[in-house]
């Protein structure tokens, strides 16, 4: 909801209804002064801890807003929520794109190549597209949490080839918990909601003349696909990585243990 000129009209439409809804709930549950003050203290702490995006995510409000904003145009790749862990200006990665550096712990992971093609919804290749991806390492941690990882590890921006094709080398991420050490973590504990997310890779994709896409890719068989704490899993975004163990293929990729590949084509809507 914008607050720029013209936003006033929108505020006048939405805010009274929002207040009516809140007042109705307060009346229905006969909420006391003490309970209301506790709620206000909680929201103050959420603000101080910079956890409003996280609160929006775990209450499934971000998923709702994503659906309202993008509809369900099946000709385009499904959108998904961004979450609070995106870092702007990640390193530009030249081809062959590898989004991580070796670090103490990397050997615990399994190499994954994600490949696909970026096109318009009518199939036209988009050679000027730029991908920006971020994910946890194989130990379930983002670079900002895992002290062993170099800064901006498992993050990166890169371009695509002349036919819109791309390939990136990463490692299969693992399920992880959203941050639980702040007020939102206490809220989850209080309402008995677990903090786990299924493993995923985040994508932001841009191309001239097209609507930017923010989405995530998930992996078949993950134990949290049906109960993601932010409710963001969409069937069309669940992929099944294929395992490669053939010696010649391993040599070709300079690897000494089995690796996985996964296909993810990306279709962008033309800007309206
Ligand atoms: C994430 O996927 O990065 C994320 C989403 C919601 C809350 C916390 C993290
Ligand atoms: Fe994430």
What does this 3D model show about the protein?
The chain is of the alpha/beta class and 272 residues long. Helices cover 26% and strands 22% of the residues. It is built from six helices and 13 strands. Strands 1, 2, 5, 11, 12 and 13 form a six-stranded mixed sheet that branches. The chain has a five-stranded mixed sheet with strand order 4-3-8-9-10, with no helix packed on it. Strands 6-7 form a two-stranded antiparallel sheet. The chain is globular, with a radius of gyration of 21 Å. The site of benzoic acid has 8 residues, from helix 3.
Short description:
This protein is an alpha/beta fold and 272 residues long. The protein is built from 6 helices and 13 strands. Strands 1, 2, 5, 11, 12 and 13 form a 6-stranded mixed β-sheet that branches. Strands 4-3-8-9-10 form a 5-stranded mixed β-sheet, with no helix packed on it.
């Amino acid at each position: 909801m914008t607050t720029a000129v013209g936003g006033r009209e929108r505020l006048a439409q939405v805010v009274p209804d929002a207040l009516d809804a809140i007042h109705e709930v307060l009346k229905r549950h006969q909420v006391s002064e003490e309970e209301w003050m506790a709620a206000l203290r909680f929201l103050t702490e959420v603000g101080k801890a910079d956890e409003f995006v996280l609160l929006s995510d775990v209450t499934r409000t971000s998923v709702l807003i994503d659906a309202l904003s993008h509809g369900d145009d099946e000709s385009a790749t499904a959108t998904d929520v961004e979450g609070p862990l995106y870092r702007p200006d990640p390193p530009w990665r030249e081809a062959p794109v590898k989004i991580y550096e070796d670090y103490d712990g990397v050997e615990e992971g399994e190499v994954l190549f994600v490949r696909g093609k970026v096109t318009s919804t009518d199939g036209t290749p988009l050679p000027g597209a730029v991908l920006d991806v971020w994910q946890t390492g194989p130990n379930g941690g983002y670079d900002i949490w895992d002290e062993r990882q170099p800064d901006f590890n498992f993050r990166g921006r890169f371009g695509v080839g002349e036919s819109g094709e791309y390939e990136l080398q990463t490692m299969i991420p693992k399920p992880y918990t959203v941050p639980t050490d702040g007020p939102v973590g206490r809220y989850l504990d209080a309402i008995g909601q677990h903090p786990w997310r299924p493993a995923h890779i985040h994508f932001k994709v841009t191309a001239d003349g097209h609507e930017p896409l923010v989405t995530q890719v998930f992996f078949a068989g993950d134990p949290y696909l049906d109960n993601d704490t932010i409710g963001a899993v969409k069937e069309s975004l669940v992929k099944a990585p294929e395992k490669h163990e053939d010696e010649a293929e391993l040599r070709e990729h300079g690897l000494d243990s089995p690796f996985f590949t996964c296909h993810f084509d990306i279709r962008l809507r033309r800007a309206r």
